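[step 3/7] inverse_fold.run input=structure_tokens len=439
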């Protein structure tokens, strides 16, 4: 009897190559933000708290760009897997047009709401709110650049281009990381210098992404029909992203009302968690590109095997990050601030940060599997359940009943666990396995 042939699979080397490229791209922005946080943190707790509040608003305004990025990756990957590279890049062209149009509109809206929104987050019209508004009004000018970079990352991941995104993000963020301390301290611009450095990085990256798309020699004209389809696909992702931001804003608002030390510690913790989450998300990016291409090429067996192999790699990475965080519980908070009150609050949230890392390693890999398959409706639903059934109510109750910053982070941990359970069951069910160029 002939032996059964082994199931097809993507080589581990290919998974690691895509993950390494995504790792560099994903790490660059949060690493710059960590540098920025450290630079601003030594100005005092008020500027640091202001940066935290304003940064939360910037993330909210960029929510559509994130939806465009992930929606573009899935569609581009399916076309690429079907052997239609020009169509895959064309998705990037139309996503870039949408990014520019939405970004310019968001700048106008952001300037109008900057003051009221930061005061809602901070809960007062004091020094922290004034610092946040000052930073936000400058930083928001870089929003179209942020969206263009996200759209560029989307199509380049879809066609499995591992080099260009690394080059772009390295140039942009090295330039900006050097500019931040120079503008904050040497030029004497203080917190506003940090905002200018952000804008410099975002527009540098955007121009380099536009240059990359021109090299592909595809039509650059806007296509309303393609943009319309992208907006429809992005609907669930926008709702999902808004659930994330509602959760983060609620948590930041609760921390802000607890005091400047709590909000500053929350800012440090969230920057570290965002860094870890995005680094772990490198396996999700690999899953998006590889699974989208496999499904576009009608290869169910490769899609299925890749899903579980990427998940195992994510678990290993999560355990490593959790160990590093546990080892650095005393030293790391002191890198960002000299304030003992902030250190104390950071130590309260630290156990949650450590525990979430290995769970997040699996969670983000599963996230990438479902993004790559285009299972956006389920991703939206499980995120809404986790956000409004866990994170938001626990954060609010922490403020009402005096649970402090530890209660806010217990809410975040609950959010992570709910999503982990839901997505593990979904991937195991196989209902995400839909073959063809489009879902």
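[step 3/7] decode complete -> sequence:
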């Amino acid at each position: 009897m002939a032996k059964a042939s082994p199931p097809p699979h993507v080589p581990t080397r290919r998974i690691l190559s895509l993950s390494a490229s995504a790792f560099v791209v994903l790490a660059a922005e949060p690493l710059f933000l960590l540098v920025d946080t450290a630079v601003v943190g030594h100005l005092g707790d008020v500027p640091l708290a202001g940066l935290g509040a304003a940064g939360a608003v910037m993330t909210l305004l960029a929510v559509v760009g994130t939806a465009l990025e992930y929606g573009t990756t899935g569609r581009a990957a399916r076309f690429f897997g079907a052997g239609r590279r020009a169509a895959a890049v064309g998705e990037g062209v139309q996503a870039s047009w949408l990014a520019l149009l939405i970004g310019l509109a968001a700048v106008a809206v952001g300037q109008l709401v900057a003051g009221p929104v930061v005061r809602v987050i901070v809960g007062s019209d004091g020094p922290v709110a004034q610092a946040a508004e000052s930073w936000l009004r400058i930083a928001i000018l870089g929003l179209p650049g942020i969206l263009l970079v996200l759209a560029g990352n989307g199509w380049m991941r879809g066609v499995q281009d591992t080099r260009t995104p690394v080059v772009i993000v390295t140039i942009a963020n090295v330039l900006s990381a050097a500019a931040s301390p120079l503008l904050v301290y040497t030029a004497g611009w203080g917190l506003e210098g940090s905002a200018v450095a952000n804008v410099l990085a975002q527009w540098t990256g955007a121009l380099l992404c536009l240059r990359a798309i021109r090299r592909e020699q595809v039509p650059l004209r806007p296509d309303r029909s393609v943009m319309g389809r992208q907006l429809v696909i992005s609907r669930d992702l926008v709702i999902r992203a808004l659930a994330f931001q509602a959760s983060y804003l609620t948590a930041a608002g609760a921390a802000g009302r607890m005091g400047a030390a709590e909000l500053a510690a929350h800012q440090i913790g969230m920057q570290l968690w965002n860094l870890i989450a995005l680094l772990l998300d490198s396996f999700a990016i690999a899953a998006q590109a590889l699974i989208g291409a496999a499904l576009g090429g009608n290869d169910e067996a490769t899609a299925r095997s890749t899903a579980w192999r990427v998940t195992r790699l994510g678990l290993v990475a999560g355990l490593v990050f959790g160990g590093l965080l546990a080892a650095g519980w005393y030293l790391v908070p002191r890198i960002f601030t000299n304030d003992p009150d902030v250190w104390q609050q950071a130590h309260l949230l630290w156990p949650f940060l450590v525990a979430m890392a290995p769970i997040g390693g699996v969670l983000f890999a599963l996230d990438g599997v479902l993004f790559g398959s285009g299972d956006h409706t389920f991703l939206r639903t499980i995120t809404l359940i986790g956000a409004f059934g866990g994170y938001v109510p626990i954060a609010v109750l922490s403020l009402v009943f005096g649970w402090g910053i530890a209660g806010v982070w217990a809410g975040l941990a609950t959010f992570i666990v709910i999503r982990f359970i839901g997505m593990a069951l979904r991937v195991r069910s196989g209902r995400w396995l839909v073959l063809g160029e489009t879902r």
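[step 4/7] annotate
The CA atoms of residues 149 and 167 lie 13 Å apart.
Confidence is low (pLDDT under 50) at residues 1-7.
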